[in-house]
Every structure is written in C-alpha cells, then in structure tokens.
Protein 1
Amino acid sequence: MTPAPILRGKRLLLGVTGSIAAYKAADLASKLAQAGAHVDVILTESATKFIAPLTFQSVTGRKAHTDLWGDDAHVIHVGLGESAELLVIAPATADAIAKMAHGLANDLLTLTALAARCPILVAPAMDGGMFEHSATQANLRTLIERDVTVIGPAEGRMASGLMGKGRMVEPNELLGHIRLALGRGGPLAGRRVVVTAGGTQEALDPVRFISNHSSGKQGYAIAQAALDRGAEVTLIAGPNSLPPVVGAVAVNVRSAAEMAEAVLKACADADALIMAAAVADFKPESESEQKIKRGASNGYDLRLTKTVDILMAVAEQKERTGKPTLTVGFAAETQSLIENAREKVFKKKLSLIVANDVSAADAGFFVDTNRVTIVDAGGGASELPLMSKAEVAESVCERIERLLKSKGW
Ligand code: PMT
C-alpha cells in the first residue's frame, strides 16, 4: 500500500473483538499504517485470545490498548474517542454489536465507542445463524439508524465450516469504505465525476477480439482519487481484472460503442469526464456470428473501420447541453508527445489532456508508474516526474478541482 493523502496523518481507531477474523484486522491495521495513518487499536479481552496486542503494536508502531487498564484508565477512552477521526470496529461480534446498540460500556472498546464523536464503521463477523437472528438484525438496524455504517458481512465458508453470510469483508474492501468515509465533505463533494478505464474489445467472432494492453490501473486510480475528494464517481470500464473501487458506480462495457453509450449517458449531468480508457480506434468491419475457421488458405484478410470517437461525441453533447463541464482526455503517444497532445486538446475541445509516452518501460500501459505531461486548453504544458499512477491521479484531480474553482463552476 503506497501512502495515500486521504489517509496520511489521519487518526484512526480500530476496535478488534473476539472473532477468528481478528487476523484480518492485523492486515487492515498494517495497510492503514503503511498508507500513513496513525492507527490506535483497542482489543477486547476475547480478541486477545485470537490475536496478541503485540501484533498490532508491531504493525502500527503504536501501543495497542486492552482492558488491562493502567493509571490513565479513567481518561483513556475519552482521549481516544475524542481525538479519532474515524472509529472502525472490525471484526465486530454479535456481542459487541448488541452492546453498542444498547449503549453498554463495560469494556474499553464500548466505553470509547460511546465517547467517540466521529463516524463509526462496523464490520460484522459471526456465524450465519447468529447474523440472521432477529436480535442481531434489530441491533444492526438500531446502529444504522444512529448513522453507524455497517459493512458486510460477506457470504462464504465460515469458521464453523458452514457456508452462509457472516464472514468479515476483506481488508482491501474495508480500506475502500474507510477512504469513502474520510473523503466525505472533501473538495469535490457534490461533484459528479465520470471516469473511463481499461481497453475496449472489438469482436471479430464469438471467440476473438481486437484490444490493447490497458490494465485499467490509471483510470481506477483516478476514480479512487476523485472519491477521496468526496466526488460521486461513475467508473466506466472495459474488461479488466482489477478489484472494484468501493463507492464508485461501476458500469462494465466491452466495445467502444458500448463505452460511448455509457459515457454520453453518464455525462448528461456530470461536472467532469476523465477519459483514461484506451478506446479502440478501429474495429472489424463485420462481426462473424460463427467462429471463423482456419480453412485451407494461407491467410485471412481483415478489414477494419473506425470506431466512434467518444470524446468528439462528448464535445458535441457539451455544445448542446453544457455537460460535462470539464473534459479531460489522455494521449497515449510513442512519438512527438507534446505536439500530438496539443493537437488532440484542440481537436477534441478538451479542458486538459494528460499525455503519456507509452513506449517507455516504466510508463503508460500496465505498469504501476507513469510519467505524464499535462497540457491545458491553451496549449500550456507542465511535465511531471515519474510517479505512481495513484500520484498521477492525485495531480489530475487537483487540476480538476482548481479549474472548477477558478472558473466558478
Ligand atoms: O490502463 P493502464 O494499463 O493503467 O494504462 C494507462 C493508459 C496508458 C491506457 C492511459 O494512461 C492512457 O494513455 N489512456 C488513453 C489511451 C488512448 O486511447 O489514447 P489516444 O491518444 O489514442 O486517445 C486520445 C483520447 O481520446 C483518450 O482520452 C481516449 O480515451 C479518447 N478516445 C480514443 C479513441 C476513441 N475512439 N474515442 C476516444 O474518446
């Protein structure tokens, strides 16, 4: 996990209760600490039977609290509860949920939960029957009514060996929910941002297609950076193997034509469109209904036609409706990076274009890093050094934020 501005320096409180899923909480604490958050952990007595406080101390670099209270016992819960920006209880047992629902405060964690004035996330973990029990359901409803966010549980195999709904959601998904909670009210709050990612697939027959090497990483990183700033994000993506971005409305498409339809629809009320997708420029002139046979001839002639230019279609829609307010394109170039990017920014009527040299081994398609130059509508170029795709995403979102503000949009 690379440092993330949304988590850097944030004071997070992680409550761990007695479930086998407690080991996943150590992974979560580690990821949060690596991302730059200050993570204070409180373990209930039963949690310490599953995992040692020392595990959390080792991954967070901070003291992990238990019910073995010291001299500061009378104030510690108030201090922890009041200074935290978010309280996450993961895993949360049926017992812990019941105590919270009824305002019980007979251990450090439940005391702190009562003292806390920050948003609370709860990730239940228990056997399926316990989760479905009307008492647990009523307790969860009570928490939700009090604005506690309940995440999961997920379905799958549980410690009892039974299948059902009761597994704590995975740490990466929890991380997404934590970012979402921290980003609420951020500088892009109330803004609708549409992001495209990945490559399109243009079918030749039922088993073959033309595509490219886009992994979707750059687009997904932009969607995450926009969510971190509080935006409402629609992520329109071609086929890829990335985990979903928690909080984004996901629209999965295959071809350029499908992506065009989804983009134009989502842009009808959008403040910004960021086209990081590598959309195919050409598609087979016709798609065979049956698998094309190898046959006896030595070759196969493939005729291609142009696909729809999505950004040009967006420019036309914008002329008619004014939406999206901002349009950001990407330019994937192997030569004359800035000249080609300038040409595209004017031709496609963009607010900005992010140019990347995709012939470099450490930039462009698939890798985790990128080196980009951001070219504005007037042709002004600012070159950024090699950075992670997450950092590029931060820079792009910063520019969008500044543009929306400076133009009074
Ligand atoms: O997904 P990754 O592996 O992380 O790789 C990231 C990336 C290299 C794909 C990304 O950084 C990138 O450069 N995306 C744009 C790729 C591209 O199609 O560039 P282009 O120069 O061919 O197109 C210019 C712009 O027009 C792009 O914003 C593109 O989305 C858009 N376009 C292209 C073709 C088309 N038919 N319609 C379009 O709207």
Note: The chain has two domains: 11-182, 187-288+301-406.
Protein 2
Amino acid sequence: MRVDVITIFPAVFREFLGASLIGRAIAAGLLEVQVHDLRDYTDDPHRSVDDEPYGGGGGMVMTAPPWLHAVRLVSGDGPPPHRILLSPQGERLDDARVRGLAGEERLVLLCGRYEAIDERVRMLVVDSELSIGDYVLSGGEVPAMTVIEAVSRHIPGVVGRPESVENESFRSGLLDHPHYTRPRTVEGIEVPDVLRSGDHASIDAWRREQALEATRRKRPDLLAGDARGQEVASKASNRR
Ligand code: SAM
C-alpha cells in the first residue's frame, strides 16, 4: 500500500515513520509513505497557505489553490487514490472503516491546520472525511498517523503473528481478553491459575469468558442494541 500525506509540518512524521512496526513495514517494502510539504505547492514567494476568512471571524483559513495543486499532483495519472480529509466533522474512524481502508491500494491524507480549509477543497478533491473522535485537535497530523498505524496492521506481513490482529479488540465484536506475563505475583496479585495449567481448551474458554466480561463492563454499547452484539454475547455465553 502507498500512502501520501500532505501537511505543513512534514517533520513531525520523521520519527514516527522510522519506528517499530511502521519502520519495519516500510523497510520491507510492505508499506510506502511519502510526506509532502503543502508549502511546496504554493506559487507565492512567501509560501503562504492561509488567508483571512470571508465574512470575518476568528482564525485563518487554508487557501484552496495549494491544496488542489498538491492533491492532484500527488494523486498522479494512475488509478485514483482514495483521498481522505482528516476532520473532526468526518465519519468516525472505527475497526470496520480501518479494514475497509486497508483494502485500498493508495491513500492520500490531507492534514488541515488553523481554523479550517477552504470548503472548495472538500468539494473538489476529497473522497471522504474522517474523524478520530469527537474532540478538536490543532492539526490533522496525529489523526493521519492514527490512520496509517491502524491500517498498516491489516497489511499482510506487517504484524508478525497474524493471530495477534485476528484476536484483537473489536475484531470479533468483543474486546480483547486480559493478558499476563512474568512475574507470577505482582503486589500480591497472582496470575490466574488456568493460564499456567497448560490446558489449552480451558485457557481458550477462560479467554472467551473474560473477553465477554470485559466488553460488558467497559463497552456495553458494543453488545447492546445491536443484533450482532447480542448474537456474539449469546454465542460466547453458550461456549462457557
Ligand atoms: N474549525 C474546525 C471545526 O471546528 O470543525 C476545526 C479545525 S482544527 C483546529 C484543524 C485541523 O485539525 C482540521 O482541519 C483537521 O485536519 C484536524 N483535526 C482536528 N480534530 C480532528 C479530529 N478529531 N479528527 C481528525 N482531524 C482533526
């Protein structure tokens, strides 16, 4: 998969793209990420990308021409990439959306700054608007990193053990079960006996039960009011 990011702060991606799973995925050629400085697509000597809003009011608005130029040039002439504007007004990113995006060959991520981006950018060169949650950040860079990290976990080969991704929270409609490692006792709290029993059927059953319990306790909304959630809950109960 190839991802192009357009931002006025390309430097913030440097460490992120070199570290951990993302760094290894890029080194292995499983993922390509190109970060573009929006200011390189301006045609004024000051490389300015913002102006005062029509109608007045606070804050500066990012001008349309550099965005249109950047998105079109970065998109190229080949098969059209999926162009995403990171925005608090967008559709909320969730596991289903992440898996859908992982099926795309190319993504272009537009990172806004300031008060807003001129609305005509959304109208002319954006396929979807994505939000990482109902709060407002100062820029789209952290949301873009969130998209890259979440999506890359679904590219075959990026996560060493595919079952890690298969068993993660949300995948089965439930949260993940609790995990323990050494030492066996931490401040008087023991690792549950079943996990040291070597009985894999019992361990699997314990994990399913704990996943259901964690979901009921922390995210009952995943089970309630949703036919699939009810089905998952009833299947998990029947397996006990
Ligand atoms: N005035 C805008 C509003 O209220 O909808 C918020 C602009 S915000 C200060 C600047 C940029 O940060 C946005 O253009 C967007 O790219 C990014 N951003 C902020 N919060 C975000 C969120 N929750 N999800 C995705 N992007 C976000």
Note: Strands lie at 2-7, 32-37, 50-51, 61-62, 82-92, 106-111, 116-117, 128-131, 185-186, 189-190.
